[in-house]
Amino acid sequence: MRISDEPLINQARERFALQDYYGAVHLLQELVEAGRSFADCHHLLGLCYAMLGQPQRALDHFGRALELNPRYIEAHIHRGILLNDLGRTEEAAEAFRRAADQNQRHASGFPAHVAANLANHHALLGAAYAEAGALPLAVEQYRRAVALGPAFADIRYRLARVLLEMGDVLTAREELERVVADRPNFVDALASLGLARYLSGDAAGAQQVWRECLLTRPKNARVEAYLAMLERAAE
Known about the structure:
This protein is mainly alpha-helical. Among the domains are: 6-101, Alpha Horseshoe (Serine Threonine Protein Phosphatase 5, Tetratricopeptide repeat), CATH 1.25.40; 171-235, Tetratricopeptide repeat domain (Serine Threonine Protein Phosphatase 5, Tetratricopeptide repeat). Helices cover 77% and strands 0% of the residues. The chain has helices at residues 6-17, 21-33, 39-51, 55-68, 73-85, 89-101, 112-131, 135-148, 153-166, 169-182, 187-199, 203-216, 221-234. Helix 2 (21-33) runs antiparallel to helix 3. The model has no long low-confidence stretch (mean pLDDT 86).
């Protein structure tokens, strides 16, 4: 299981900074097509497509980023700017209002946008520790990130993946159940939840989830492999 795709995202950020938007898109699409994309990936794709003069694609990716992380203030702002440029002023105003809402105080005592920024920094540290093989330290950082951003489904999902890697199947399952409850169309989380259910002895529950995955994303090779595994085990 590949835990961290941060190096690839960083390469895409470098291509973006050099105004090589097509190069950045190529790197980011690799993550999307592999089913490993997160909010940051979709936000950067949105920026790339906006710079390439493809506003609808940009809006689609800003929307996807916000599905994964509703408190993603930069995605709200960039979506609002693009909508305003398209003359969709009422939608733009709503996007800016939602961005402003993120300045409300978080339960941690920080302004919401500060808490969100700190959560993302802890998640980056978690990814770095995971990449280095220091999984307990990765879990610690991801838990801090989740505490600061409990609605960040992508970060909670990354926490669950590391827990699965460590063999803490039941805790991973709890986290994934919450992710799927909040984001029922998060296919990668559904696929991982199926694996967590299977590893915790719930083959029927795993099969149910994986079939739901195929309804959302037909011909998903990863999920088809899981279902084939179940069929062989039942023989």
